[in-house]
Request: fold
Amino acid sequence: MTARIAHISDTHLGTRPRDGVRSDVWAVEMRTRVIENDFYERFAEIFDRIASLDPPVDLVIHSGDLYDSPSEENPSQPPVVAQETALSVLKSFTEKTGIPVLIIEGNHGLYRSMDVSLLDSLRMSISGLNVATHVDLKQAFNKKEPLKYSYDKLDVFCFPYMSASLLESSGLVNEFSDWIMTNQSPSSRKASVAVVHGMDSDRTLPPSILSMGYSYIALGHDHKQHKHSENAWYAGSTERWRFDEAGQKKGFLVVEIAANERPSVTPEYIHFARPVFNRRMTTEDIGSTESLTQKIDAWFSEKGIRGPWDSSTAARIRFDFRGSSRIGNLEIMNAMEAYRTKVLQSGSDYNIAQLTWHTRPPETEPSLTAFPEIESEYLIENPEEDFRAYLDTIKGLDTQFDPALLTKVAVRALKMSVKKGEDKLTLETLSEDEGR
Reply:
């Protein structure tokens, strides 16, 4: 018996970019900003696409990060419109199609210090919706019970986000592994799915899950849609959450599953009206501040970005300045700030919704998995690497200073600056980072 599912993930409803965003325009007057609204539109579009599939799917699986907040760097609840969108789209979908939906909790939209979940209000409001929250996971773990849902054609085992450092600090690594092997093992008589919000890079994807014989493993957390192993796929995010996702295809997966057979996975892609550019410029490109803005102007014309404002097609742009040049980073920043003011002002002839930039030393690449809770297009992408590169530029640095310790202090300070209520910077808090 073959089951057919739609696998989506990382919708990040309520994402509100701040840096370099044009502030005098709305997508929906007095309700949502232009880029924020893109995430709501993609969410509705995805469910419309799934509803029109022929043959229909038996189940929709969302593998985490329904909302963008609360998160490590943003303790606020999601915007009201984000919660309204989730409720209205999911309720309409389940009532019109009769297709059940299952959502697990990721690391975004998670109250880390409270035993409550935003998914609970959806669970109470939508009869065709099942959810698995961090509270459900803790209860199942404590009671040594499985966390799963059974449907007509398959069993679904749920693995909401679980911090590796939390398990380690609590001394529960082995117990958690035992719970997985004992209580989350699939039956060979029925097709099975494991839904996991985790990655190898931050140790939130327990390796045992990959070898337990699930018919399919629906992964979330990595925003790039791709195959992880023979029966495990990341659905990827549904919108360009970061600028380094600009060239990635986005959408969802349609998966046909049968017990003891390899899954058949078909990617379904969506089209974006809004262009997103992550433009790299090297030392040779930069030249003087005057030539820099002239070259950017010419590139804008080449890409069709010069023109009247259109809220649906206004571009999001980030410049990635690489290498040292005869003008310093401060001069680049001042020139770009003045240029951005001109570009984003009301009545300009630039169809741009967001303009930002980043400078980095030569021969460095951003690490997409370094400090997962800080990785954002609005902050330093790899704080450790960037600070070490900065130390290398300082001539005559006193040898009594340990570069590794200085880097650790700087990174910890950055993490504290984006987390409300963080403990003081002490030797004890620095030592906590050793295993992270």
The longest strand covers residues 352-360.
